[in-house]
Amino acid sequence: MISLLQTRLLRLRIINLAGSLILLGYNAIIEVWPMVGLNVVLSLINVVYLWRMLRSRHDAQAYTVLEVEPDDRYLAHVLHVHREDIARYNPGFTHDPHGDHSAYLVLKGDETVGVVLVRDAGDGVAQVVLDWVSPGYRDFTPGEFVYRESGLFARRGFERVLSPAGMANPYYGRIGFRPEGERWVLDVREDAAG
Q1: Residue 135: other Cβ atoms inside 10 A
Q2: How buried is residue 151: exposed, middle or buried, by Cβ count under 10 Å (0-12/13-18/19+)?
Q3: What is the pLDDT of residues 87-126, one digit of tens each?
Q4: Residues 3-21: pLDDT tens digits?
C-alpha cells in the first residue's frame, strides 16, 4: 500500500522490490510455491526498471533541454497545472510572462519533467528564478542538464549561476554548486560553451 502512495518513481520501485522480496521469503517459508513464483517475477520486473532508471539518471541522452519564450502558452500551462507544488518548493515565486528572463523546459521523451527560469542579474551572473521538477522525477535531478550538460550559461557569457534564495530541499550540492550564504553558486566552466 505504501508504494501505491508514492509520487516518486524511484521510491515506488524500491518499495515494490522490498515488498516482493519479503513476500518471496515468507511464501518460501510456508511453501506457497505459486506465490513464490509470482514474487520472483515481480522482483525481477522491479530490478529491471530500477536498473533502467538508474542507468539513465545522469545520461544526457535521456533528457532534452528545450528553450522557450517566457510567454510561451505551454510553459504557462505547465506552471498553472503545477502551481501548488511549485509554491511548496519555490516560495514566493510568481511568473511574469513579459519579464526579461530565459525559460527552459526539461523533457524526458515527450513528458515535461522540469522548468528552469533564469534572469540576467548583471556582471556575468545568471539568477535562477525558478527551478522546478515534477514529483515523479525529483530523485533524478533532471535540472542538472540545464546547468551542466547543455552549456546554455557559458554560451550566453555567464560566469556564475545563483540559485533562488530560500528554495526548499535544494539539490544543487549534488550537481556541482557550492553553498554561499542562503544561496547555492555554480561557477560556469569555459569548456561548457562548446
Answers
A1: 14
A2: middle
A3: 988 878 889 888 888 899 999 888 999 999 999 999 999 9
A4: 666 666 777 888 889 999 9
Q: Which residue is associated with the grid cell 522546478? A: 132
36-54 burial string, b = 16+ CB within 10 Å, else e? beebeebbeebeebbeebe
From the number of C-beta atoms within 10 Å of its C-beta (0-12, 13-18, 19+), residue 111 rates as exposed
Residues 6+ apart with CB under 8 A from 166: 91, 92, 182
**How many angstroms separate the CA atoms of 53 and 97, rounded?**
34
Neighbours of 100 (CB within 10 A): 8
Q: Please say whether the beta carbons of 78 and 105 come within 8 A.
A: yes
* pTM recorded for the entire structure: 0.72
Residues whose CB is less than 8 angstroms from the CB of residue 103 and which lie 6 or more positions away in sequence, other chains included: 67, 68, 69, 70, 72, 75, 115, 116, 117
Dig out the grid coordinates for 49 from the structure.
526498471
Cβ contacts of residue 24 below 8 Å, gap of 6+? 36, 39, 40, 43
Burial of 32 (0-12, 13-18, 19+ CB in 10 A): middle
Using DSSP's 3-state secondary structure scheme, residue 115 falls into strand
Secondary structure class of 90 (helix, strand, coil): coil
